[in-house]
Amino acid sequence: MAGGCACLAPSSLRSARPLGPDDVLAVDGVPATTFARTIVDLAAIVSADELERACDDFERRGFSLTWLEQTAQRAHRPGQRGTNAVLRHIAKRRRGGGSAARGSRS
After folding, report:
1. Who is most buried in 13, 36, 48, 86, counting CB within 10 A?
2. CA–CA distance, 8 with 98 (Å, rounded to integer)
3. Domain limits, the chain
4. pLDDT in tens, 62-83
5. Distance (Å, rounded) from C-alpha 103 to C-alpha 26?
6. Which 8-state DSSP code applies to residue 16?
7. Residue among 16, 32, 13, 36 at smallest CA distance from 24
8. CB atoms within 10 A of CB 53
């Protein structure tokens, strides 16, 4: 994911609301969601283990949990599973319960 983004084909865009400027960027002129926004959206459809792996990758690439948290807070709407899952997962990591807090796995 060059530049911290995940490129999406137009047919895979399914947002009920337009994405704000903090959630999109262009890669070679092609609109894409930021890495943080992609994880927030992904969290609605993946298991807790898959979310943990995505967050591990996010941090390994040098991105901040604060950015991910701010993105989830900005995207949150009542009834959304993805944003709540991300916010719970970040809180768990900050309490020392996430795998990044335990160090790398062998």
Report:
1. 86
2. 28
3. 2-9+23-101
4. 999 999 999 999 999 887 789 9
5. 33
6. S
7. 32
8. 13
